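Notebook entry, structure prediction.
Reason for the run: the old model in the group folder had no record of what sequence produced it. Starting over properly, with the input documented here first.
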Amino acid sequence: MATTTATPDVVLILAPFGRDAPLSARALRDVATTKICEDVDELCRELPGASAAIITQEALTVTSLRTLAIALRAQPGWSDLPLIVFTAAQNPTAYRRSVEALATLGNVTELERPVHPITLVSAIRAAIRARHRQYEMRELIKDMETALHQRDEFLAILGHELRNPLGAIANAVELAQRRSSDAPGEISIIRRQVLVLSRLVNDLLDVSRVTSGKVVLVRDRVDVVELVERLVGEAGADARREQIHLSLTSDPGPLYVVGDQVRLEQVFNNLLGNALKYTPARGRIEVAIVHDGSDVRVHVRDSGVGIPGDALPHIFDLFAQADMTIDRARGGMGIGLTLVRTLVELHGGRVAARSPGPGQGSEFTVTLPLSAEVAARAEAPVDAAPALGGRRLLLIEDNIDNRNSLRALLEELGHVVAVARDGVEGVAVAIATAPEVALVDIGLPELDGYQVAQRVRAALGHRVRLIALTGYGLPEDIRRARAAGFDAHLVKPVDVRTLERLLLADPQPAD
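New structure, fully documented this time:
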């Protein structure tokens, strides 16, 4: 619970004419500390420490009103300083004009002269009580900000600790499948569940970024037709295994949007994954890409469990789920659709859901604005990754299972791999052997990965390609890796195809 620090209550008084200032101060001597201000500039300087302010109508000139308005606008969000204005019945027009202007900016109470001391004391006590509630709100906000910061730190550490074992498992599974075309079915099960766990970890970290407004898009031109066709193709094996008919229809492409390809993949993978999860065997999933004027619409329809009418308006809310039965057979945390909505809106688009009701399927529609550019960018054909071989690699990793499994996988791909167990050893081996590519864990003992990158880059320049291999995947982690000299940043468990592309890339030219 928030606690409010005890501070003396200060009432500011701006009454430049007559005896209003000393009389008010005398009436309030047992209620609060008073400070008589010489002019509006002094009053504005004292506003941050004040509990209330008394202003006479005569002080509200056009100039002073403008100065006071600027100061009131600068108050923090929790603050609404109580203002008490002494008015004069003999000049109601001037008073009304001043107070109406001030009332739009502050918490104004008017007291008509002559003001009885009991009336003034009562008004100030009420104002101070209101101010104390604002102080309590300020402390609550501070506590919430602290709690959110602690949550984000905990989730980042949790993500790192979960990704390390997931990385080792994913490497071992990939290695087993590459070594044997007759790998048992259990290996495929493990691989699928590792992917599920990886997505859950990513969703947990992403929801932290979403709720704190820290999602950063890396924008480029993305062909929605190519992206969705690829994702549907990748989902085909899961659909066949579950005996679900998955189909795709599309208007002619390319249909370009300006967006973050990774985040858009996350959107459509989430919708496809939900459709597969909630559609029973022998059901249907239909994906349609439609060119609609200046927009592109992607429909994902399924014949699955549907959405109850009372749940439909809340389906994109955080932690909301239409099906919360005790068996939890379909899993999920109620995070994915919140991420979908947020990411689509960050791209200037919108997402909608509809369903006739339980047992009658559902449809999700993502609408994105097309790129304003008319000329289509020439795209190089995407071929299968060529066979690798011959790269001299250095793997710096302190986790023994990750180190051994990734080393074996890289050697299976045809590379010569040296290893180091900590940052100091890693720098020494890198300088002695000058590898073509160094894969560097960030959370290393002795020297962390950032320090390793800086020292290797200083010694070898751009003759070595540096790839961060880590369980930390927040935007600030990526920026810090770039600043330290890394060429790329991969989050565990690593996608082998992505790693292959990076290993094939040419080193940066020398400085």
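Summary: The chain has three domains: 10-142, 220-369, 392-504.
The old model has been moved to the deprecated folder.
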